[in-house]
Structures are given as C-alpha cells and as structure tokens.
Write a structure and sequence with these properties.
This protein has helices spanning 18-42, 57-78, 99-119, 121-135, 141-162. With 180 residues, the protein is mainly alpha-helical. Helix 4 packs antiparallel against helix 5 (141-162). The termini are far apart. It comes from Pseudolysinimonas yzui. Keywords: Membrane, Transmembrane, Transmembrane helix.
C-alpha cells in the first residue's frame, strides 16, 4: 500500500503577502474616499425648487454604491479573503510597459481636453477615439476616425438635444446652435 504524499501547502491556504493585503486596503480606502468626495460634492448641486427628483439623485446613488463597495472590500481584506491573482494568457510579466503608447494616449486625452472648446465636442471626441485606435494598433486609422466622429455626433445629439446638456459645438457645428 502506498501512503499519500503530503506537502506543507496541502490543506491550508497560503497566507497572503503583506504587499497584496496593503494593495487591497489602499484600493478599498481610495474607493471609500472617492465615494465620500462625490457624496459631499453632490450636495453642492443646486436643485430647482420645482423638481421633486433633482439632479442630485444619480450622484448620491453612485456615491453610496462606491462607499458600500469600498467598505465591503475592506471587510473582506480584514477577514483574510483576498482577490485571486489574475491568471491570463495575455499577461506577460517579462515585457516592460509600452511607454510610447501610454504617452500617446495621455497626450490624446490632454489634447481632447484642450480642444473641446476650440473645435467642439464631436470633433474632439473623433480625434480622441481615432487617435486611441491608432495608438493601440488599428489597421485603418481613418475608419476609427469616422467611427469616432459618429460616436461624437451621437453623444452630441443624445446629451445635447435630448437631455439638454451643454456640450460645445465648435465653429464647424455652430450653425446647429438653435437645435441645442
């Protein structure tokens, strides 16, 4: 008869490293802090007296969800339940980050923020979307640019025309001003 081989790891959970616990505690704390910040900010929104359900409902709801999620993560970490590390075929830890792609994406985001007022939301969104697709390796960048323009115009119509949100039109679309 053979006896089963036992290893020290068999039958007990590996104790999580301090680094993993600290990372999850920091994540939980940042989530709670973001929720508190958003909750405090939502009470600063002016609500017209004619509205029973005002513009603060959604921000308060999101804030409460953030705070609850952060507290839930914190409680689980304190109880010793850590998230499982990612196991993916796509992750190769031997490769260093592609800082050029990251710099392109950050530059596109900054350009988007700076160009919104100058060229309008739709065109700035098209540049951001097309540029991000190009940075991430899109074969046909011009298709991504056209899709970005379509998305930008759709957002402009839905949020500007239907919901009354003020998104800058820019000089090329200024003739649409009376619609928005």
């Amino acid at each position: 008869m053979s006896t089963p081989v036992t290893t020290p790891e068999a039958g007990r959970r590996a104790t999580p490293g301090l680094r993993a616990r600290l990372g999850e505690i920091i994540f939980a704390a940042l989530t709670i802090a973001l929720g508190v910040f958003a909750l405090v900010g939502s009470f600063g929104i002016r609500v017209p007296e004619s509205n029973r359900v005002g513009p603060t409902v959604f921000p308060v709801l999101v804030s409460v969800i953030l705070i609850a999620a952060g507290i839930a993560v914190l409680v689980e970490v304190i109880r010793g339940h850590l998230g499982a590390p990612e196991e993916s075929e796509d992750v190769d830890l031997s490769h260093k980050p592609d800082w050029l792609t990251i710099a392109k994406l950050v530059g596109l985001l900054v350009a988007h923020l700076l160009l919104i007022e100058l060229i309008g939301w739709a065109f700035a969104a098209a540049l951001l979307f097309g540029g991000a697709a190009w940075s991430l390796g899109a074969k046909r960048w011009w298709v991504a640019l056209l899709v970005g323009l379509g998305l930008g115009l759709t957002v402009q119509i839905v949020f500007g025309l239907m919901l009354g949100l003020s998104l800058p039109l820019g000089p090329a679309l200024a003739w649409l001003g009376p619609l928005f």
